[in-house]
Write a structure and sequence with these properties.
mainly alpha, two-stranded antiparallel ribbon, 3 helices, about 65% helix
Length: about 100
Protein backbone atom coordinates (compact mmCIF):
# COMPACT_ATOMS: atom_id res chain seq x y z
CA UNK A 1 0.00 0.00 0.00
CA UNK A 2 2.86 2.37 0.82
CA UNK A 3 4.48 1.67 -2.53
CA UNK A 4 1.31 2.68 -4.36
CA UNK A 5 0.98 5.85 -2.29
CA UNK A 6 4.57 6.77 -3.10
CA UNK A 7 3.97 6.08 -6.81
CA UNK A 8 0.94 8.38 -6.73
CA UNK A 9 3.11 11.13 -5.25
CA UNK A 10 5.75 10.59 -7.94
CA UNK A 11 2.99 10.66 -10.53
CA UNK A 12 1.76 14.03 -9.26
CA UNK A 13 5.24 15.49 -9.70
CA UNK A 14 5.46 14.07 -13.23
CA UNK A 15 2.03 15.49 -14.10
CA UNK A 16 3.02 18.91 -12.77
CA UNK A 17 6.05 18.96 -15.07
CA UNK A 18 4.28 17.16 -17.93
CA UNK A 19 6.99 14.48 -17.95
CA UNK A 20 5.34 12.01 -20.33
CA UNK A 21 8.16 9.46 -20.22
CA UNK A 22 8.08 9.35 -16.44
CA UNK A 23 4.27 9.12 -16.45
CA UNK A 24 4.48 6.09 -18.73
CA UNK A 25 6.95 4.33 -16.43
CA UNK A 26 4.82 5.14 -13.37
CA UNK A 27 1.66 3.86 -15.08
CA UNK A 28 3.35 0.50 -15.74
CA UNK A 29 4.55 0.28 -12.13
CA UNK A 30 1.09 1.14 -10.82
CA UNK A 31 -0.50 -1.54 -12.99
CA UNK A 32 1.97 -4.14 -11.72
CA UNK A 33 1.32 -3.16 -8.10
CA UNK A 34 -2.44 -3.18 -8.54
CA UNK A 35 -2.35 -6.63 -10.14
CA UNK A 36 -0.24 -7.93 -7.23
CA UNK A 37 -2.67 -6.40 -4.73
CA UNK A 38 -5.61 -8.09 -6.48
CA UNK A 39 -3.97 -11.53 -6.13
CA UNK A 40 -3.51 -11.34 -2.37
CA UNK A 41 -5.46 -10.26 0.67
CA UNK A 42 -5.65 -6.50 1.13
CA UNK A 43 -4.08 -5.60 4.46
CA UNK A 44 -5.06 -1.97 4.78
CA UNK A 45 -7.12 0.01 7.24
CA UNK A 46 -9.98 2.27 6.23
CA UNK A 47 -7.73 5.22 7.08
CA UNK A 48 -5.00 3.96 4.72
CA UNK A 49 -7.52 3.35 1.93
CA UNK A 50 -8.99 6.83 2.42
CA UNK A 51 -5.50 8.33 2.20
CA UNK A 52 -4.78 6.36 -0.98
CA UNK A 53 -8.07 7.47 -2.52
CA UNK A 54 -7.28 11.09 -1.66
CA UNK A 55 -3.88 10.81 -3.37
CA UNK A 56 -5.50 9.27 -6.46
CA UNK A 57 -8.21 11.96 -6.57
CA UNK A 58 -5.59 14.71 -6.33
CA UNK A 59 -3.82 13.19 -9.33
CA UNK A 60 -7.05 12.87 -11.29
CA UNK A 61 -7.85 16.53 -10.71
CA UNK A 62 -4.32 17.60 -11.66
CA UNK A 63 -4.44 15.52 -14.86
CA UNK A 64 -7.81 17.04 -15.75
CA UNK A 65 -6.50 20.57 -15.22
CA UNK A 66 -3.28 19.88 -17.14
CA UNK A 67 -5.15 18.44 -20.13
CA UNK A 68 -7.65 21.31 -20.11
CA UNK A 69 -4.86 23.86 -20.00
CA UNK A 70 -2.93 22.20 -22.82
CA UNK A 71 -6.04 22.01 -25.00
CA UNK A 72 -6.79 25.65 -24.34
CA UNK A 73 -3.20 26.62 -25.19
CA UNK A 74 -3.44 24.66 -28.45
CA UNK A 75 -6.81 26.22 -29.28
CA UNK A 76 -8.57 22.88 -29.49
CA UNK A 77 -12.32 23.16 -28.99
CA UNK A 78 -15.48 21.51 -30.25
CA UNK A 79 -18.29 23.87 -29.47
CA UNK A 80 -19.40 26.88 -27.52
CA UNK A 81 -18.81 25.14 -24.19
CA UNK A 82 -20.11 26.15 -20.81
CA UNK A 83 -19.77 28.87 -18.20
CA UNK A 84 -17.13 28.68 -15.50
CA UNK A 85 -17.53 29.70 -11.85
CA UNK A 86 -17.12 33.37 -12.79
CA UNK A 87 -19.80 33.18 -15.50
CA UNK A 88 -17.10 33.38 -18.17
CA UNK A 89 -17.75 31.32 -21.30
CA UNK A 90 -15.32 28.42 -21.61
CA UNK A 91 -14.91 26.40 -24.79
CA UNK A 92 -15.12 22.64 -24.54
CA UNK A 93 -12.10 20.80 -25.83
CA UNK A 94 -12.15 17.75 -28.03
CA UNK A 95 -9.90 14.72 -27.87
CA UNK A 96 -6.60 14.63 -29.72
CA UNK A 97 -6.87 10.86 -30.21
CA UNK A 98 -6.49 10.07 -33.88
CA UNK A 99 -5.54 13.63 -34.78
CA UNK A 100 -2.43 14.20 -36.85
CA UNK A 101 -0.50 17.17 -35.53
Amino acid sequence: MNELTELLREERQAIATIDLNRLSVIAEKKQTLIEAMQRGPLAASKKELAKLMAEAEANRALIHDAVSTLKEMLGISDGPGTYDARAKMRARASSLVGTKL
